[in-house]
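Session log. Operator J.P. requested a structure for one protein chain; no other inputs attached. Running the standard single-chain path with token output.
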Amino acid sequence: MADLTPQSNRLIEEARRLRDDNRDGGRHRRVRSIGKGSASARRKNLTKRLGFFVGAVFLILVGASVAGLILDGIGFAGVMAVALAVVVAAFVFTNFPKVKVPSRTDINKGNVQQMVGRTELWLEAQRPALPPPAARIVEDMGVQLDALGLQLQGVDQNHPKAREVRSLVGEQLPEMIDSYRRIPAHLRTEKRAGATPDEQLTDSLGKISGEIDSITRQLAEGSLDDLAIKHRYLDYKFGEGAAAPTALEDKT
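Structure written below.
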């Protein structure tokens, strides 16, 4: 029989690392966008950082050139100072400005489509503090929110489905995660009413995920029906439906 001790030790060590990561708030997990909305916000932030860095380097070089003209050269020390200034600028604008994460109170403002986008960015920031099963649901939810946002384009703000989305995504979802995060870490794995807070959160997120998918499908029904009608029309005009009259005409 193969020795399972090394494998067991490895699994135990991975479990310990995961536990420590959760206790630290997930700071060691790689930040990855959960959907197109949050990815777009990160791209814009990166573009802004790059612009600031280029502007800073330009000002440093202009300053060095002016100093060189006035002092008849800046010498080796000046060149090193310029290089150091560029490195400092690179460090600063690699880390700042940060992506602005909507506050909990700002999520449900604006039209419902914008609210969905803000919720996605807010969820992405909360993900590291969630238990792994719940974090995986949040990652999948990013794609669902992207699809929901597309379906909400042009939908009246007073439409029943728009109000339903605002309640589900803008209120119930963040409130549930806030409630979970207020629970002390050492109590999140203790059973209460038959389930741990970790399990309750994961189950609730799964239900919300299913409801988001259901609303998206309902909003898309009109487009699906329209596509099916166009398909049947084209099939009748140019497909098998059009073949029969052509054959009769050939016989006559």
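Operator note: The chain is about 75% helix and 0% strand.
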